[in-house]
Design a protein that fits this description.
The protein is 47% helix and 13% strand. The chain has ten helices and six strands; from the N terminus they run E-E-E-E-E-H-E-H-H-H-H-H-H-H-H-H. A hairpin with a 2-residue loop joins strand 3 and strand 4. The protein is globular. Keywords: DNA-binding, Transcription, Transcription regulation. InterPro entries: AraC_XylS_family_regulators, DUF6597, HTH_AraC. One of its GO terms (molecular function) is DNA-binding transcription factor activity.
């Protein structure tokens, strides 16, 4: 069973998931990174460019999902170094720092509360988020072309690509595709017909939507929506 709620950290979401059986539902690309708690371990989920299928026996997971572009500053690691990976926080931080954070999470009322407290602490240490990254995400999520967005932000193509790699784990064109996929999923899950979903999400047509969903998730839209 999966549940989520908004976190006290702006734009973040706290979630829990206890799969009904081994593995679990695929985690789809969304432009985000997560700090995870699993059986006393702290891990980091890097940005995905394809669907990730959990492995292993059914066991509870908790996490805090950071809005796109914010986690690298909090964790102190460029996003592209974690692309399509799940890694132990101990591989990124000193043993002492991980031990202190693990103790903070374990001492909280529950893992979700502990992760939320940890995220607030990390955000305080990191300082205010880069407003340019927020503007970039907002523009691409609104369907603005990458070139036009770069001009509006006053960045050259190479500079934009370099900033995007560090913040999101991939270039702005891939980020735009991932955000468009998420827009389409929201519409399709709300019952919007596929052709209308494609048009409203920013695809050329329904066939374009179908290809992009398959390429990014390895599944058809019907399978993702539970229709077989």
């Amino acid at each position: 069973m999966y549940t989520e709620r908004p976190a006290r950290l702006a734009g973040a979401v706290v979630w829990t998931n206890t799969p009904a059986g081994p593995g679990g539902a695929p985690v789809l690309p969304d432009g985000c990174m997560d700090l995870l708690w699993h059986e006393g371990r702290l891990l980091v989920a890097g940005p995905d460019t394809r669907a990730y299928t959990p492995q292993g026996p059914a066991a509870p997971w908790s996490g805090i999902r950071f809005r796109p572009g914010t986690a690298p500053a909090l964790l102190g690691v460029p996003a592209h170094e974690l692309r399509d990976q799940r890694v132990e926080l101990a591989d990124l931080w000193s043993a002492g720092r991980v031990r202190r954070l693990r103790a903070r999470v374990a001492a909280a009322a529950g893992p979700e509360a502990g992760l939320e407290q940890a995220a607030l602490l990390l955000a305080t240490e990191a300082g205010p988020p880069d407003p340019l990254l927020g503007r970039l995400v907002a523009a691409l999520d609104a369907g603005r072309p990458v070139g036009v967005t770069a001009d509006e932000l006053g960045l050259g193509a190479r500079q934009l690509h370099r900033r995007a790699l560090a913040a999101f784990g991939y270039g702005p064109k891939t980020l735009a595709r991932v955000l468009r996929l998420q827009r389409a999923l929201v519409l399709a899950r709300a019952g919007v017909p596929y052709a209308d979903t494609a048009a409203r999400a920013g695809y050329a047509d329904q066939a374009h939507l179908a290809r992009d969903v398959r390429q990014l998730t390895g599944r058809t839209l019907g399978v993702l929506l539970g229709g077989g």
